[in-house]
Amino acid sequence: MVADSDMSDSQSARALAPRRHGEILRRLAADGTVSITELAVHFDVSRQTIRRDLKQLADRGQLELVHGGATLFEPTEAAFTERRGENAAAKASIGRAAAALVRDGMVVFLDSGTTTLAVAHALADRKDLTICTTSLSIALQMCRQPQVRVHMLGGEIDPAEEAAVGIDALEAISHFRVDVAFLGGGGLSPDGDVTDFTRNGAEQRSRMVATAGKAYFVLDSSKFGRLTPLRIPRFELAAGVIVDRRPQEAICEALKRKGPAVIVAE
Amino acid sequence: MVADSDMSDSQSARALAPRRHGEILRRLAADGTVSITELAVHFDVSRQTIRRDLKQLADRGQLELVHGGATLFEPTEAAFTERRGENAAAKASIGRAAAALVRDGMVVFLDSGTTTLAVAHALADRKDLTICTTSLSIALQMCRQPQVRVHMLGGEIDPAEEAAVGIDALEAISHFRVDVAFLGGGGLSPDGDVTDFTRNGAEQRSRMVATAGKAYFVLDSSKFGRLTPLRIPRFELAAGVIVDRRPQEAICEALKRKGPAVIVAE
DNA sequence: CCATTTATGTTGCATAATGTAACTATTATT
DNA sequence: AATAATAGTTACATTATGCAACATAAATGG
Question: Does residue B213 belong to the interface with chain A, where contact is any CB pair within 8 Å?
Fold first, then answer.
């Protein structure tokens, strides 16, 4: 005789409400916004259910409802999402490609910048990572992830980058042993150099290239051929350059000669 | 008919209660949630049994029951985001009182916490300030202000505070000469001590009290009489305690004896 | 052997969560 | 401004879960 009234209800484990809540908040922390329709599809529940979830979270003050979804009500993240608009798809794909190079348990350095931020997003549901960063936004977002340790490299904050620069940050870098570093850059010059806007930035990235087990530059295609004043010293020690589409042939060849691999996302 | 007492039936199926408990807790630690239906299937026992298991574990304080399963109860989870809402008016008035003590050109240290965040808000339109802070949110906010320099004290990020703690932050403090520091605290004990939750926090604040030209503790009235485990050493060197209403007479007198002034906002 | 305890299964009903549908409001498009 | 498309609301149906009471079966102890 089979027992069926209470036992094995033929039902494939609908997610628990707290599970949904957890993931909703994680997505929110990562992206700044969530959409009801997307979430409903993702969890395979009705939109009404998601609405009820969001209502609860909103009542607890964890998010703010907006038409079609919810946002963080932190002014901090808002500005962020705005800036991110350009090339968002390209950056997201670079982020995924970069995240594929990271295994659980690693120590990861994330530079400041919107492209490295995309890497942080792509690492959102990883477990057991240690993140080192100079970026305030990245630190704030990643520290909300469970099972992720975050080290903020301190120093004077550059308002344009919203990240620490200067001597303190430079020095702090040397304290860490990082497995893999993802660095931004101002441009990818026609002769295959990654260049930067400021002396401090270039020096900081240079040190990280030299220190990290593997260093990758993440650069979206808007940077191709762009010239900024400072070459990043020792750039050729980097393991690779992650881009959203293949750069001009001349650049590729120059890179090949120097050493770093060209990794085209997606 | 069958010998079954020794018959190791299909691996995890039909485990003893303590075995189930062990695995339940392991799963909980890994995923943050467990579902009754899933566990019942996994152990091949009835849902009622799992419910009884969870009830026991909940009675022992090892998890928190929710509809359909259980979660680990996270005191930190929403702590920061929730706390922000509480006592907002009181904190704002404390913020204004604190800001009144700051003159343009000063070097100001802002501790982590929601009350110090209110101080940051109150300083929003000041010119020519230098802000030092361990708080990610404060750094992010203040660096968007024109004519404000921000120094972020780096270190490991405590997710509950969303601020740097630990040895790096401690050390970084000593590099600065600050005119005025605004510090948070866990509680204001009946005998007029400001106390803290963690050793690191207490030490960090203690150093700041000793280092800063003037140090003020900002405490909303919910902290009055509250006991937290660690006294902040050298607290009596602080210039004052800024509160939103006058504390109990005993506390006021104890404070007077020790030295710090009591400043009631508004 | 029986009585007792302990763990588990079963059942029925109360409660809570989710789904559905009809209708209204908002946003986007022309 | 009119329209279509998308999202929000409300009310109610459906399903899943919680709970308590009782049933069953093995273990325990005399």
Answer: no
Which residue from B66, B78, B84 is facing A17, i.e. has the nearest CB? B66
CA gap B46, B39 in Å, rounded: 9
Smallest Cα–Cα separation from B66: which of A233, A19, A191, A109? A19
Cα–Cα distance measured from residue A28 to residue B15, given in angstroms and rounded to the nearest whole number: 39
pLDDT at B32: 82
Give residue A232's region: left, alpha or beta (phi > 0; psi -120 to 50). beta
CATH assignment at residue A23: 1.10.10.10
Nucleotide nearest A65, CA–C1', reads: D8
Q: Is B147 left (phi over 0), alpha (psi -120 to 50) or beta?
A: left
B50 touches chain A (CB under 8 A): no
- Among A73, A94, A118, the domain boundary falls at A73
Residue B188's domain spans which residues? 81-264
Give B213 CA → D11 C1' in Å: 64
Residues B129 and B39 in one domain: no
Angle (deg, nearest 10), helices B36-43 and B47-59 = 120
Residue B132 lies in a domain: yes
Tens digit of pLDDT for each residue in A18-64?
Answer: 889 888 887 886 677 899 998 999 899 999 999 999 998 888 878 88
- Can you say how many angstroms the Cα of residue A71 is from the centroid of all Cα atoms in its chain? 18
Clarify whether residues A45 and A94 are in a common domain. no
Q: Are residues B64 and B153 in the same domain?
A: no
| Low-confidence spans in chain B with pLDDT less than 70 | 1-15, 74-87
Q: Residues near chain C (nucleic strand), Cβ < 7 A? A: A 1, 3, 5-7, 14, 17, 45-49, 52-53, 67; B 16-17, 20, 44-46, 48-49, 52-53, 67-68
Nearest CA to CA, how far is A13 from chain B (Å)? 6
